[in-house]
């Protein structure tokens, strides 16, 4: 049962790493270019970083919710949650691949 | 083209150096070696950035041979106000 939770933790942790990479490039460029475009990319990266950090916290450290997710959430619900996390991982991977140029 | 310029020049890791390349090519067309020397960049780095700029139709090459000279495309010229707006912020 906790296998699903582990996959969710790994996926959100990887998303955090990818977003740190994207945020690094975009924030550095924003410091240099100060354009609306770079601001938009930077804010996007920061907010999505927040989303994944919250998810990782909820799955791993929140005293009430981490136990709840580990024991009371049925596999069917995990499948749906994981689809979201894993799709986001692939989306961010491609974006980082294009951005790291 | 405008969106491409913003993303390629300000949304990616090597954007700032590509802006410098475009600025140099606007002054006069040059080959990869001359660009590397003028901008104090590694030759391989210059080659990579030139390929990205060509991929996005911002610059074109005068030929396929080793010393090929690069110049701005008509498309880039048409959107030069966008390029200028971006360049203002670099150095």
Please provide a written account of the structure.
The complex is a heterodimer of chains A (about 100) and B (about 90). Chain A is mostly helical and about 100 residues long. Chain A is about 90% helix and about 0% strand. Chain A has 4 helices and no strands. Chain A has helices spanning about 1-35, 35-60, 65-70, 75-100. In chain A, helix 1 (about 1-35) packs parallel to helix 4 and helix 2 crosses helix 3 (about 65-70). The longest helix of chain A has about 30 residues, at about 1-35. Chain A is elongated, with a radius of gyration of 15 Å. Chain A starts with a helix and ends with a helix. By secondary structure, chain B is mostly helical. Helices cover about 60% and strands about 10% of the residues of chain B. Chain B contains 6 helices and 3 strands; from the N terminus they run H-H-E-H-H-E-E-H-H. The longest helix of chain B has 13 residues, at about 15-25. In chain B, about 25% of the residues are buried. At the A-B interface, helix 1 and helix 2 of A face helix 1 of B.
What order do the helices and strands come in, and which of them pair?
The complex is a heterodimer of chains A (101) and B (91).
Chain A: H1 2-33, H2 36-60, H3 65-71, H4 75-99
Helix pairs in contact in A: 1-2, 1-4, 2-3
Chain B: H1 2-10, H2 15-27, E1 30-31, H3 32-39, H4 43-55, E2 59-61, E3 69-72, H5 74-78, H6 80-87
Antiparallel strand pairs in B: 1-3, 2-3
């Amino acid at each position: 049962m906790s296998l699903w939770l582990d996959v969710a933790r790994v996926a959100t942790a990887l998303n955090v790493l990818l977003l740190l990479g994207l945020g690094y490039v975009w924030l550095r460029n924003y410091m240099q270019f100060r354009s609306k475009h770079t601001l938009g990319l930077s804010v996007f990266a920061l907010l999505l970083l927040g989303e994944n950090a919250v998810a990782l916290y909820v799955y791993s450290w929140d005293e009430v919710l981490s136990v709840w997710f580990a024991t009371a959430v049925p596999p069917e619900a995990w499948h749906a949650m994981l689809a979201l996390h894993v799709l986001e991982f692939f989306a961010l991977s491609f974006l980082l691949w294009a951005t790291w140029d | 083209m405008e969106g491409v310029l913003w993303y390629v020049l300000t949304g990616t890791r090597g954007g700032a150096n590509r802006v410098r390349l475009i600025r140099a090519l606007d002054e006069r067309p040059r080959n990869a070696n001359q660009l590397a020397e003028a901008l104090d960049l590694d030759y391989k780095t210059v080659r990579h950035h030139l390929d990205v700029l060509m991929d996005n139709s911002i610059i074109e090459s005068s030929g396929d041979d080793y010393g090929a000279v690069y110049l701005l495309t008509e498309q880039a010229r048409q959107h030069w106000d966008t390029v200028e707006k971006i360049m203002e912020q670099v150095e």
